[in-house]
TrEMBL record:
Record-given protein name: PD-(D/E)XK nuclease superfamily protein
Organism from which the protein derives: Streptomyces prunicolor
Length: 387
């Protein structure tokens, strides 16, 4: 890139010379205050992308018990619930070439496991408080005409997208080296769910406080060859949608199983619309005075992949390791589920262990066992609270 100035024509011609950011902290503060410079692309419904800051220096733990091992420069999110992880480096930092890539992949892998919805929501609301913004204003900007969508539902969607790897990774620098551009384009071709970009943000200064910022995005060519996270179709599934999908299942036992799970949740807890590409609903139960996401029922395009998955990350976050461990131990031993539950202690009781509806339907007492485990989760916590 040349050092050719840019010109502003008003009453007279003014030349703006290219200028480096004095410190990385200045660079980071600019992005936090003006995320519009990172807005490129569009949302699922065609609206322009608008990133909203969740937190600066977002802690990234490597287990549910540990303090943050890493600190991400910025976490943003858009109205579709797609998280955007941003790492900022100046060209003078030699880590901009390769080390920053490994750093970002560490952040993404651990964020997908250890950032539950409740933590994301609290981080966003803490940021609003520090910036002196009312939550009503902040959620109005974030959700726009989706005002009927609850904050809890939105952050659960963000958690689900993280768990599925549906996110953006942005490397931002005042100069992007060729090595980093090549890595970004390679990652974009290989990663199906995650979009990776390098954003070169050039600064020009003129007289007084006049500044011009010129962003240039690298990685869009590789992203165009796949379905980018920011362009995925967002579908909000209703109970009627679920019932219609259930009715299309050829196995009557599968139909009875899915209906029984939804009916119990509607009667004893509550259901929330899923936003995945397939039909899904999130299942909440009231535990210790709060609505806890316990499971998600998903009906796929391929009925053999229909499943029930348990939200252990959220259960652990809301109720603690002991309650999560007791819940895991009380679930019935089923093919495909048992081994996933056995792996939970090593993961700090984080993750989404799942069981197929076909397996549930083939085991006569499986549904009753799951509903009994849920009731124990609720009653056991209430007994502890009453002591």
């Amino acid at each position: 890139m040349t050092n050719q100035p840019v010109f502003v024509l008003g009453e007279e011609l003014q030349a703006l010379e290219r200028a480096e950011f004095e410190t990385e902290a200045e660079f980071q503060e600019l992005l936090a205050r003006h995320p519009r410079v990172l807005d490129f692309g569009s949302l699922a419904d065609g609206r322009p992308l608008r990133l909203v800051l969740v937190a600066r220096e977002m802690g990234v733990p490597t287990s549910t018990d540990s303090a943050p091992a890493y600190w991400l420069d910025h976490l943003f999110v858009d109205a579709d619930g797609v998280p955007t992880l941003v790492e900022v480096k100046r060209a003078t930092d030699t880590r901009i070439r390769r080390e920053v890539v490994g750093q970002m992949l560490d952040y993404a892998a651990n964020a997908a496991r250890y950032w539950p919805a409740a933590l994301l929501r609290r981080s966003f609301e803490d940021t609003c408080a520090k910036d002196g913004r009312s939550l009503q204003e902040a959620y109005g900007e974030l959700l726009g005409d989706q005002g009927d969508r609850s904050a809890e539902e939105f952050w659960t969607t963000v958690e689900e997208r993280l768990a599925a790897g549906q996110m953006r990774l942005l490397f931002v620098a005042d100069q992007i080296p060729l090595e980093l551009r090549a890595i970004v384009e390679f990652l974009n071709r290989q990663l199906r769910q995650t979009d990776v970009y390098a954003v070169e943000l050039t600064q020009y200064r003129g007289g007084g406080d006049l500044r011009v910022l010129v962003p240039r995005v690298h990685g869009e060519v590789a992203t165009a060859a796949k379905s980018p996270s920011g362009h995925r179709t967002t579908q909000r599934t209703t109970r009627a949608d679920m019932d219609a999908a259930i009715a299309s299942r050829p196995d009557p036992d599968v139909r009875r199983t899915a209906t029984a799970l939804l009916d119990h949740a509607a009667g004893e807890g509550r259901l929330e619309c899923g936003t995945a590409k397939y039909r899904s609903m999130r299942i909440y139960y009231r535990v210790s005075g709060r609505d806890v996401p316990v499971a998600t029922l998903s009906l796929r395009d391929d009925p053999t992949k229909d499943d029930l998955s348990f939200a252990f990350g959220s259960i652990t976050y809301h109720l603690g390791h002991a309650r999560a461990a007791a819940f895991a131990a009380s679930l019935p031993t089923l093919p495909g589920l048992a081994e996933k539950l056995e792996a939970l202690p090593a993961k700090g009781y984080n993750g989404w262990p799942s069981v197929s509806l076909a397996v549930l339907a083939s085991e006569p007492s499986a549904v009753e066992g799951i509903l009994s485990a849920i009731q124990q989760l609720i009653d056991g916590q209430q007994l502890i609270d009453g002591q």
